[in-house]
Amino acid sequence: MKKILLLSDTHSYIDDQILKFVKQADEVWHAGDIGKLEVTDAIKKLKPLRAVYGNIDDKDARAEFPLDAKFSLEQVQVWMTHIGGYPNKYNQRIREEINEKPPKIFIAGHSHILKVVYDKKLNLLHLNPGAAGNHGFHKIRTMLRFELNKGKIENMEVIELAKRGS
Description:
single chain; alpha/beta; five-stranded mixed β-sheet; globular
């Protein structure tokens, strides 16, 4: 069993509130728009990190992290990318592949809108953790945490950190 913390759209922001939840996880996944690499460096000092770069990320982030992360953990296939769309509206770049080989979990960031949606057509769980940073139009900074356990996704929780700018 692995405890996962999923965040996105930090836009160079990390604080003790985020790091408190990082310490409680077995792994941290970042779905892009990291901003300054100090964010991912702080996370990596505490826990293993899987991350993808987003549209605002510079050449350093793009050199360190991929556009897509595809992996299996606890018998759960995962695909994480920054701009991925939503069920029935997947981004054109990934549409053909996700229809041919859907993962069990598909993760995207970018919108700053937290969503957990089951895609009945592709039999996958779509996750967007919202935005953990202070930059953007979102009102509340959010993340997701859950457990992966022998092929199952369990104990999904929404984490509301604080109002943006607090």
